[in-house]
Design a protein that fits this description.
single chain; mainly alpha; 5 helices
């Protein structure tokens, strides 16, 4: 068996022309062709900048994926916790569904004052 499935396929490399080649092409081009070449070059720059920005965003997201920012708002922290611990969230939601709304209100009435007392003592 070969390892063809395990080896990554190489990405096509963007062909870039050197500045000298662009100058030679620009000297042979008409003004209309120069305008088109400038637009093509600007578009290539935009695409390259967008690719770099996407790579930076992915790297930043990957570096922050394994922790929760303590200064973040509560909904953001809850979403981050849910992404980090999906099984625990599923168990909690399942338990809430099984318990029903009346029992949840009763438990909340007991637990909430305890939690508030613990937070105020810090």
């Amino acid at each position: 068996m070969s390892n063809a499935k395990n080896t990554p396929t190489p990405k096509p490399v963007r062909s870039t022309t050197s500045a000298v080649e662009r100058e030679i092409n620009a000297s042979l081009a008409s003004p209309e062709q120069l305008a088109v070449l400038k637009r093509i070059d600007a578009q290539r720059d935009r695409i390259h900048a967008r690719q770099l920005a996407m790579q930076q965003a992915r790297a930043l997201k990957a570096s922050n994926a394994d922790r929760v920012d303590a200064e973040a708002p509560l909904p953001v922290r809850l979403l981050a916790f849910a992404k980090l611990h999906p099984v625990a969230v599923a168990v909690a939601v399942g338990a809430a569904l099984i318990a029903g709304p009346a029992k949840l209100m009763r438990i909340g009435g007991i637990v909430l004052p305890i939690v508030m007392k613990m937070r105020s003592s810090k």
